[in-house]
Amino acid sequence: MSYTHTAVVPLSWEDAVAKTREALAGQGFGILSEIDVRATFAAKLGEDAAETLGDYVILGACNPVLASRALAAEPELGALLPCNVVVRRGPGETATTVQAIDPQTMVQLSGTPAVREVADDAGTRLRAALAGLAGAA
């Protein structure tokens, strides 16, 4: 099973990150956290490791309405929130890859009808954000 939805866009790194944020906001997601993996690799493993990885950021995206519904159904689902969205571009690549977690992963762990409904809604919104991102390129 694939556990991500993916869009590859011919955008610069900076534009891809900015447009990903905009596309997520357009679907009701805010960014709760941002992890600059490249900077972390540089600080902890050295510049060579960071250079090998390339540009890589993990955005912790959250739609408060969906999160509220999910947590009301199963408080344990907080361990799976927020939805991670990765924006990455390897060394020498000319396109940027954007990947979002497939919320159906939650359904495999839970399976309750309320969680399935939230996962369906979140998946629709994340796919729409990625489609909008691809259309903006």
Overall description:
With 137 residues, this protein is of the alpha+beta class. Helix content is 51%, strand content 25%. The chain has a 5-stranded antiparallel sheet with strand order 1-5-4-3-2, with helices on both faces. β4 and β5 form a beta hairpin. It is globular and about 45 Å long. The two termini are 28 Å apart.
Mean pLDDT: 93
Give Rg in angstroms: 16 Å
Helix content: 40-55%
Number of helical stretches of at least 4 residues = 6
Total strands: the figure is 5
H/E element sequence: EHEHHEHEEHH
Strand content: 15-25%
Indicate the low-confidence ranges by residue numbers.
none
Silhouette = globular
Termini gap:
28 Å
Q: Indicate the structural class.
A: alpha+beta
Profile the largest sheet.
5 strands, antiparallel
Main sheet strand line-up: 1-5-4-3-2
Concise summary:
This protein has 137 residues and is of the alpha+beta class. It has helices spanning 13-26, 37-45, 47-53, 64-73, 104-109, 113-136, and strands at residues 4-9, 30-36, 55-62, 83-89, 96-101. The longest helix has 24 residues, at 113-136.
Layout of SSEs?
Elements lengths: L3 E6 L3 H14 L3 E7 H9 L1 H7 L1 E8 L1 H10 L9 E7 L6 E6 L2 H6 L3 H24 L1
Antiparallel strand pairs: 1-5, 2-3, 3-4, 4-5
Keywords:
alpha+beta; 137 residues; single chain; globular
